Amino acid sequence: MSSTFAQQTYKITFPETSKWFENISESSEFKYIEAINNRTKHTADIVNKLSMGILGSSNTTEIGAFFRKDVQHGKKELADQLQATIDFLSKSWEEFLDCFCDEFLLDTYTENRAHTIGGVYQ
What we know:
- Helix content is 53%, strand content 13%.
- The protein is built from five helices and five strands; from the N terminus they run ααααβββββα.
- It has helices at 2-6, 8-13, 15-26, 28-42, 78-104, and strands at residues 48-51, 60-63, 66-68, 71-73, 76-77.
- It starts with a helix and ends in an 18-residue tail after the last helix.
């Protein structure tokens, strides 16, 4: 989808959505999510640490450090990273909806859409 909005035609017609895709792909949050997803999907070699104390007083949940595309990612606390990911996704979704609502009103590229289909009313 981002490659579609990177094309000059759509970049001019839908500038807000195009900029949104650029901002997402350049954000450090997205790059980390992309890196950990790709790393676990293809090699599954990120060492994660999950430990619980007998009485529950010393619980540890960490995403281990890993290296991808010349970038070293340090270890992170799992709960903190999950919350950061949820916050990033929520914020990104709200920003996307704003772009979509603004540019949907332009009513561009309406050919062959369902709302251009007519009919006979009796």
